[in-house]
Every structure is written in C-alpha cells, then in structure tokens.
Amino acid sequence: MKHLKIDISKVTGFVSEDTIRGYEDKVMKSNKTLHDGSGKGSDFLGWLDLPSSITEEHLDDIKATAEKIRSVADYVVVTGIGGSYLGAKAVIDALSNSFDFLQNERKDPIVIYAGHNIGEDYSYELIDLLKDKSFAVVVISKSGTTTEPAIAFRLLKQLMEEKYSADEIKERIVAITDAKKGALRTLADQEGYKTFVIPDDVGGRYSVLTPVGLLPIAIAGHDIKQLVEGARFMEEQTKPGTSFDENPSAVYAATRNALYNDGKAIEILVNYQPKLHYLSEWWKQLYGESEGKENKGIFPASVDFTTDLHSMGQWIQEGVRDIFETVVSVETPNYEVKIPRDEANLDSLNYIAGKRVDEVNKMAELGTLVAHVDGGVPNIKLELPKLNEYYLGELLYFFEKACGISGYTLGINPFDQPGVEAYKKNMFALLGKPGFEEETKAIRARLK
Length: 448
Ligand code: PA5
Fold this sequence. Notes:
By secondary structure, the protein is an alpha/beta fold. It folds into 2 domains: 5-40 and 228-410, Glucose-6-phosphate isomerase like protein, domain 1 (Rossmann fold), CATH 3.40.50; 50-225, Glucose-6-phosphate isomerase like protein, domain 1 (Rossmann fold, 3-Layer(aba) Sandwich), CATH 3.40.50. Helices cover 47% and strands 13% of the residues. It has helices at residues 17-21, 24-36, 50-53, 56-72, 86-95, 120-130, 147-163, 166-172, 183-191, 211-219, 224-237, 248-260, 277-291, 313-318, 357-374, 389-410, 421-431, 437-447, and strands spanning 5-10, 75-79, 110-114, 135-141, 173-177, 194-197, 266-271, 299-304, 323-330, 379-384. The strands form 2 sheets. Strands 1-10-9-7-8 form a 5-stranded mixed β-sheet, with helices on both faces. The chain has a 5-stranded parallel β-sheet with strand order 3-2-4-5-6, sandwiched between helices. The longest helix is centred in the last third of the chain and has 22 residues, at 389-410. The N and C termini lie far apart (64 Å). The relative contact order is 0.16. The chain binds 5-phosphoarabinonic acid. The site of 5-phosphoarabinonic acid (PA5) has 14 residues, from loops. The site of 5-phosphoarabinonic acid has 14 residues, from loops.
C-alpha cells in the first residue's frame, strides 16, 4: 500500500545533504523528548498518541451523534475559531464535492461556519439564512470563554429559541468543550446539551483528531474511522524507534530547520487542488502559533496553484530570496476528465486534446517546480497518493508531529500561544470589560 512520501531532492542545491544530515541527531532527540514528555509544554502532549488511543466506542458515539444531527438538520453551523474549526473545515473541504452546497437533492447537511470572525454583516447574513431553515449547531470552544464563538453562539441560540421548543433545541445543539471549566461547560450542563470533551492535554490546534474535528467531519458524511486509521499509520511511522530516513516528519523538520538557519524565513505551502485551500489555513495556524515566538520562527504562508501563479507567481519567481516552498501534491485525482478536441481549434488547444486535465495540472506543477528552483526557491515535495480520508489522516498527523519536532529543534515551546493574549487584553479594555479598568486607562492614554 502507498503512503505519504517526502522528497527533498530539490532542496539539496541550496542546503547540502550533509547540512540536512547535520540536523538528524537534533530532530531525533526532539522526537524522543516529545515522547519522553521531558520538553517544554509537556502538559500538552495528548495529541501524540490520540490516533492509537481512540476507542471504537468513542468513534461510534461520535458517529451516532452525527447521525442524529444529520437526521434533524439541513444546515449545521460549526461555531468555533482557530483550532476549534480549522481542522474540520480543512478535511470537509478537501473531501466534499466542490459544488455540493449548490445541489438541491442532498444526502448530507450543508456545513457552514460561525464564530471565526466578528463581522456584523456575516452575522446578519447567517441569521437571515437560517431563520427559515432547519439547522443545528456544533459549538466548540476548549476554554469555553472565547469572544468570537461566544457572540455567534448567543445569536444562534436566540434564533433557536424563537424557532424550536426546549426539547428540539437539545436535539440540535452539541457542545465540545472542557470537561469541567468554562462558560460553555456550565451552559451545556445547565441546558442538557449533548457534549464531548476536549482533553486537557490537547491544545486547540492539535485537536483535529478529537471530537473537535471528528464530529463535524462525520456530520458532513465522511469516514472518520478511515481518517483515524491513516493517522494511526503515521503515528507508528514517526515514533522514535523509526530511523531518520524512514520518518517523514523528522526529515521535514530537519529540512525546514536547515533552510531557516540558511536565511529562508518564509515557508509557502503550495497545493494544486483548490479543495486543499483550508488545509493550508489549518497548517498556517499549526505552524504559526506553534513556532512564532521568542523572535524566532518560520513565517507560514500559502498559495493555491495554478490560481495564484497568476497573482503571486511573479513574487515567488523574482522577489526577495528568503522563501522556500512545500508542495502538497496529490498523485491521482478521484475522477477523470479529458480535454475535448475542437474542429476549429481557435484556442490552439488541440495539441493537448484527449489528455486528462490532471496531466496538464501535473505539467504545470513540474514546470513551476523547475522555474522556482531555477529562480532560487528550494522545494520540498509531499506526495499524497489520493485525496481521501485515510491519506488526509496520514497528512494531518505528519504535520502535527513535524511541528512538535521542529519546535523543539528551534528551542521554543510549540504548545503555548502567549502572544495571542495581547489583542484580547486591549480589546477587552477598549470594550470596558469589568476587571480591565487599569488596562482601559492605559490603552486610552496610548491612543491619544
Ligand atoms: O490552538 C489554539 O489553542 C487556539 O487557536 C484556539 O484553538 C483558539 O483560540 C480557540 O480557542 P477555544 O477553543 O478555547 O475557543
């Protein structure tokens, strides 16, 4: 059976194989430190063995809950921000029909998102959409106190109370939060919502393989057992007992650290499948929030090719040479479409008539690879055999593991996010939140 592969052959013209090998000991040690639990942030290592520790009963409970939601609602609003929605959206978008939301005859509910912004127009349009639709809400917040999802949930709950009885509401709301703490836990217990727990030792951005990701993915009609199976394979493959060359997360971590220390401060995650746009958004959060601290860290950026070759392509080809690319390449598409022959041939495309669209995509990928490498951009390639649940499970765990290893190799704590508090403190002060009086005075003075 095929698995995710990493190819760093187009990096070695920039940093030598020996230089990358020079990181072998460090990344192997970082991996061991993760598994020993002896490094920074070791209270948040629950994600490490999540795939192998998820029980059949737990998965069945998630699937049964998903079935209930699917049976009552045409629209399901996943309400959460950051790690509390990006993993679910990444997987759902990657696996769903691109035009699914436009189909009239649907077997799956439409999954939409709220609580990931504070846009008033977005809030209005969401409520306006749902007022005459059958809907359910999966509200997700580990802390249970995050402002964005809390505002959205207030609005959604108010709409539910206008439309449904108390018993109906209980069938239509699922809360995923801490086992004991937080406002969402208190409310869920008070109202009798079905709940799932985000384990204490799993941080938001590492939580896609908990109910945070698995419930929305199951509601959207995708096979969460296969997703977990793929992640299990990668968990096994990236254990400290595996050699450096056989451990793709270790190779990725070593390569990106070697590039970083050679002046490549920006990593661009590239895909050639529009369905992977949100996988990049998930990856950006994972790496950005994990590594960007103590004035260190690779800046994670992303592009969708070939679309963005017509916007960002120029910069990547000829801009500041402080970037490298990591390309997620899907070997075989799920469907086959061939380019038709045209008698008039006004567009001169008959030279590719009869070829699959994917063959053109692959040649664009290859042509871009050569052009960018020639232009001074090192290229890491991640090859996925197919876009399905199993391989996405491999990819998610691969990235999580590589992020933990990379972070330790960089010397920072990849499991906290102290910098995120700064904007919150100022926002609360400006809004006049009780308890923030001193901060209010200080920020008002700053803004004079
Ligand atoms: O990775 C993280 O910890 C964060 O991005 C959180 O996921 C995000 O801030 C949402 O937090 P919460 O789930 O507590 O509402």
